[in-house]
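Hi R.,

Here's the input for the flavin mononucleotide complex you asked about:
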Amino acid sequence: MTQQLKIGKHIVRYPLIQGGMGARISAGRLAGHIARCGGVGLVAAAGIALNSGLYDGKNFFQAEIEAFKAELRKAYEIAPDGIIGVNVMVALSDYAPLVKAAIEGGAKVIVCGAGLPMGLPELTADHPDVALVPIVSSLRAAQLIVRKWQKAYHRLPDAVVVEDPDTAGGHLGEKMENIGIGEYDQYATIRSIKAFFRDECGADVPVIAAGGIWDRADVEHALAEGADGVQMASRFVCTEECDAEDGFKQFYIDCTKEDIGLLMSPAGLPGRAILKNIDNIRQYDLDHHTTCRMGCLKKCSYKESGERFCIVTALDRAQRGDVDTGLVFCGTNAWKADRITTVQAIFDELFGDIPGK
Ligand SMILES: Cc1cc2nc3c(=O)[nH]c(=O)nc-3n(C[C@H](O)[C@H](O)[C@H](O)COP(=O)(O)O)c2cc1C
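And here is the predicted structure with flavin mononucleotide in place:
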């Protein structure tokens, strides 16, 4: 499979973006190795300071910026010529400073989800070569972003990621009651967004499929159905290079299909995770009288009223391997993980030559 992907001025050898995974699941090591293998590697901004050694309990926002840049440096050490970018959630309190830090750290691609990045081109105006990639789940969301960007900034996205709420991991861009009811059509959405760019903007903008893509057949299916590339996250968790501790990876290996489900995040969005330990997540905060210390999200029910749980600390516990009380996000296919492998082995499986073909 030799199809390349062009995102802005960047030519990616294989049509694959590694999905951003917050709280140091995708930090510099994973992103660097993905880029070295010929995909786009993303350092996720959310909670990057936790478990970095830079957060002292008081300096969260400053430490986020420093840790973010340090992880970008680490990624470039691994893949000096690679296509390395970032994932910054629009819902983060320090979204704008993190976008600026990404640019200072040399990110070539900025992917933004968990909200619509309506003002992103303004934040990056002095750096037109940095590719801007919104994540959406509907044609309507793509239209809202594109119309605003065209009118206010005379700019189009360099690509769009279409995340399937029925399969993707982490926060989802759809109402809880609409998820998993068989209404959503990932590839119809992709084709309608491609057609919108063509008909209304006269542009061929790459549209990338995300959610539930696991093996070579899934990648080939996505491309055959009209996607220009894929974004994959869960598949890369059980690699030696993934930045999570071993306990997090083992939780993927040990989980079954039935363990994976939906929860309501304090961010006000549904999320997909391994639910085996769900009762312990809230109980941890009750037992430890956890209060919101970081204010990491613009809107958060835990920050505002103590409802649900503190998400960034729950994700951080999981990243450190405490899967008893930590929150382990994953896509619907995470149960397929059966061993720890390497990023290169996954690329070989997805894109390598098939003997005899
Ligand atoms: C552990 C984990 C953490 C995630 N964190 C983020 C995040 O910080 N920001 C974001 O936009 N998406 C996040 N996602 C979503 C992924 O980037 C990706 O789009 C999605 O999981 C794709 O589905 P897949 O995991 O089935 O490949 C996360 C997903 C997982 C599994």
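One thing worth noting: The radius of gyration is 19 Å.

Cheers,
M.
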